[in-house]
Write a sequence for this structure.
């Protein structure tokens, strides 16, 4: 499978290892990831400011992928939802399509709505399939309890995203289970991590995260597992701040799903940047057999 | 005399300009750190830093960068083969002309004993280098004015750079072409070099002239073809005796010879009216003007871009002296060539098409930064727009990665943005996810400094919308904004709001509401109240409500709404409208006062 890899801007700044994680895991899954040099931001940070600018950014990326005849894969749920929304509008709404294409034409681009936007989990679960993914596993986790954090943008709004049932999703959990780890049930699983207000209203952001962390620990999880760089940064960098600011005794490190998958695919921990977390993640290696 | 005087005059201006510009690197500052250090300290710091670097292993990094990034300009090649060819042609063509031709007394003569500018390979190379520069200039003009590169802006300085190079090279070629045809020049050469005289060698001279007219493009009024074979034979012999040793066939000067052939019909007239001298003046004056103005023009990048590349290769945010970083950041402003690659590749560059603020684009931000660094008085309005533009940045470091001059744009822009935010002008874009990175990076910031801009915005909003603080006061009809309701109703994201029947489901589902014991006191309005207020057109309540700015955009409310109101999308529309309103209000109320 050949697909255009959409790397989130945040990854380049504070989650650099996610790039080698994505590269190595996709290679391991026989997915040929193509880097499109011209890709820009998905527009997500503009969502509060200017809706059209937000859609324009995503539509530009879609048109670039269309030009190359490729679908898009992304690991970031915010990029995913932005691209999906723009894709939806560009297909459904003639007036927006016309307006956006007029602007895109200034740089010789246009978008006709032929690209499919997929999340990393989409690819693994729907395109490759659980069965084939399982064949790639060489190691397995024993006794590892994982609290999966889906992330809001991966599930909602349902009319546009259509990834899984937003009220009772199970795909991510199944994907964790194939590594041998156990996805545990926890109450606040589907709640927001608080990242959207980090930098705007830090107290609120930390309140929301603290509740989730307490819950995950009480539910017996060893690690959190995320499917979005924003959530991961929140549960890693910001959790570190939270622990020191609020004198928490306990914390719970978070692992990116491709890292978890990569470990059980036998990819080197160093390539997967297991040591790059702010909150120590290396303990997870003890569960690996 | 005129030549020497004007040369030294130009050189003096150049030197003073250079001194002045370099001094600004140590006098100006963009950062907060350097304000406390004096100019002398900064110079001292820089010298220390340079010496320590040169006498360390880092020297090899410098060497590598010099070869690959300065001489071979690999950074341009990585971005665009077209631009690389264009710039390499201009750079190498011009540099080689400078060293071999302009500075021949100092470089070429000592290197080559038998150097004559009229001898090959010099005669040929001069034309060859000129051809390189001209091709480069044509490509540059084509890039700037014919192909529509998105978001590439051409300012007066860009035009100047192209024009001055073109004038220098073209006037040089015309001069050479005119000299080839010029009878006067021919006579001067004969007098100076041949050792033949009119009295003794009249016939030989005439034969020589015939030979030059026939073979080398001289246009003479005295001898005219057709020439007899004998005369030409004698002329050839004489040429080989007297001229050939230090004058190659002018055909080797392939461009100028072409010019000579073209102007042949009018050459006599041009020679009579002294055109060669005229172009000689133009050529030299253009060179001198270019030299004198160089430190103040974009061409200054010839010196500063390599410096920036070298400095950035060995400097490091964590380890380098902050004073030196502050100095480097001012220097980097002079290294910018306004090539526009950062704006082309900026990940949110395209949003300029919709938002229209030029300062979204990194290349244009630099221009604003120059004004800021120089401490120029900017109006509140200008500062606000610059700050707006600076805030619209994802911090993805792509501009830094692609800059051919190696400018660390990201750090530069981030520092300046922070310094501006501290100046006390509320930045409403702070209520966007562009703030996430600021929050992540805040580790290195003083807490008060980090919170100050956020506080400013909150205060400014609270000032404008006091209604929420007076829950008991009756809402006046004047607070209803019909226009606002209309806008909401027709907007793509907000139009479903009117279906709300205030069942409260959204408020019960909201994780933010759940976070507070007394949500109404903490948030002003809960989601269903907010929707209701919006439907009534009560912008005072809507824009002033803390709920709006605490919304996570998690779509929990929207998923639960039984009426199909796209609650979260309505909120996004309200946030768009609010930020637009704040910005418009701020620009309307601007006093023109200078900060």
């Amino acid at each position: 499978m050949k697909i255009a890899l959409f790397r989130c801007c945040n990854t380049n700044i504070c989650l650099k290892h996610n790039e080698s994680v994505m590269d190595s895991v996709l290679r391991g899954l026989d997915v040929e990831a193509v880097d499109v040099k011209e890709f820009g931001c998905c527009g997500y940070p503009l969502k509060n400011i200017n809706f059209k600018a937000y859609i324009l950014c995503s539509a530009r990326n879609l048109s670039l992928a269309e030009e190359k005849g490729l679908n898009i894969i992304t690991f970031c749920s915010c990029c995913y939802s932005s691209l999906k929304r723009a894709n939806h509008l560009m297909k459904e709404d003639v007036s927006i399509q016309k307006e956006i294409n007029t602007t895109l034409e200034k740089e010789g681009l246009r978008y006709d709505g032929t690209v499919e936007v997929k999340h990393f989990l989409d690819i693994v679960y729907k395109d490759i399939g659980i069965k084939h993914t399982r064949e790639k596993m060489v190691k397995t986790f024993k006794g590892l309890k994982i609290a999966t954090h889906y992330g809001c943008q991966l599930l909602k709004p349902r009319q546009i995203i259509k990834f899984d049932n937003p009220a009772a999703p199970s795909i991510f959990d199944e994907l964790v289970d194939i590594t041998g780890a156990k996805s545990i049930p926890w109450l606040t699983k589907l709640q927001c991590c608080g990242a959207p207000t980090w930098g705007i209203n830090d107290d609120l952001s930390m309140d929301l995260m603290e509740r989730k962390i307490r819950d995950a620990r009480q539910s017996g999880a060893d690690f959190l597992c995320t499917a979005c760089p924003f959530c991961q940064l929140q549960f890693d960098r910001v959790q570190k701040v939270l622990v020191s600011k609020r004198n928490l005794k306990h914390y719970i490190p978070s692992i990116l799903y491709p890292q978890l998958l990569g470990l059980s695919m036998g990819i080197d921990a160093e390539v997967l940047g297991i040591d790059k977390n702010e909150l120590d993640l290396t303990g997870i290696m003890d569960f690996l057999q | 005399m005129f030549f020497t005087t004007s040369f030294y005059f130009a050189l003096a201006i150049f030197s003073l300009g250079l001194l002045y510009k370099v001094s600004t690197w140590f006098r100006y500052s963009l950062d907060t750190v350097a304000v406390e250090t004096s100019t002398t300290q900064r110079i001292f710091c820089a010298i220390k830093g340079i010496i320590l670097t040169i006498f360390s292993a880092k020297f090899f990094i410098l060497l590598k960068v010099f070869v690959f990034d300065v001489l071979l300009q690999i950074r341009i090649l990585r971005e665009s083969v077209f631009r690389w060819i264009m710039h390499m042609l201009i750079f190498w063509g011009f540099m080689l002309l400078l060293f071999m031709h302009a500075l021949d007394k100092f470089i070429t003569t000592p290197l080559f004993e038998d150097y004559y500018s009229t001898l090959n390979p010099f005669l040929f190379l001069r034309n060859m280098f000129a051809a390189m520069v001209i091709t480069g200039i044509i490509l540059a003009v084509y890039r700037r004015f014919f192909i529509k590169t998105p978001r590439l802006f051409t300012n007066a300085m860009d035009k100047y750079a192209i024009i001055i190079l073109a004038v220098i090279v073209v006037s040089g070629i015309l001069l050479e072409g005119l000299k080839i045809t010029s009878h006067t020049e021919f006579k001067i050469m004969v007098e100076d070099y041949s050792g033949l005289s009119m009295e003794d060698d009249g016939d030989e001279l005439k034969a020589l002239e015939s030979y030059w007219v026939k073979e080398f493009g001289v246009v003479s009024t005295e001898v005219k073809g057709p020439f007899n074979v004998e005369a030409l034979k004698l002329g050839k012999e004489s040429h080989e005796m007297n001229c050939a040793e230090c004058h190659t066939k002018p055909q080797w000067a392939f461009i100028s010879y072409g010019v000579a052939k073209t102007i042949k019909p009018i050459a006599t007239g041009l020679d009579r009216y002294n055109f060669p001298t005229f172009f000689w003046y133009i050529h030299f004056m253009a060179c001198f003007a270019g030299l004198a103005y160089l430190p103040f023009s974009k061409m200054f990048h010839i010196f500063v871009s390599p410096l920036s590349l070298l400095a950035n290769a060995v400097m490091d945010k964590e380890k380098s002296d902050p004073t030196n970083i502050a100095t480097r950041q001012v220097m980097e402003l002079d290294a910018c060539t306004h090539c526009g690659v950062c704006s082309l590749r900026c990940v949110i560059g395209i949003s300029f098409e919709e938002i229209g603020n030029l300062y979204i684009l990194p290349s244009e931000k630099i221009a604003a930064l120059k004004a800021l660094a120089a401490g120029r008085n900017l109006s509140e309005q200008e500062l606000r727009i610059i700050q707006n533009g600076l805030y619209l940045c994802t911090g993805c470091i792509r501009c830094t990665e692609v800059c051919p001059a190696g400018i660390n744009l990201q750090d530069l822009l981030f520092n300046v943005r922070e310094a501006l935010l501290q100046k006390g002008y509320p930045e409403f874009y702070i209520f966007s996810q562009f703030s996430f990175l600021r929050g992540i990076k805040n580790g290195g910031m003083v807490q008060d400094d980090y919170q100050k801009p956020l506080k400013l915005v909150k205060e400014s909003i609270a000032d404008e919308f006091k209604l929420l603080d007076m829950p008991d006061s009756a809402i006046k009809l004047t607070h209803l904004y019909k226009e606002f309701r209309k806008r909401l109703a027709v907007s793509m994201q907000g139009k479903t709001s009117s279906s709300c029947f205030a069942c409260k489901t959204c408020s019960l589902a909201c994780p933010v509401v759940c976070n507070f014991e007394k949500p109404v006191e903490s948030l002003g309005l809960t989601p269903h109240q907010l929707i209701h207020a919006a439907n009534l057109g009560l912008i005072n309540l809507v824009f002033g409500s803390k709920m709006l700015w605490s919304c996570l955009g998690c779509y929990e409310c929207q998923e639960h709404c039984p009426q199909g109101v796209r609650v979260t999308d309505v909120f996004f529309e309200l946030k768009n409208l609010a930020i637009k309103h704040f910005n418009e209000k701020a620009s309307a109320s601007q006093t023109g006062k200078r900060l």
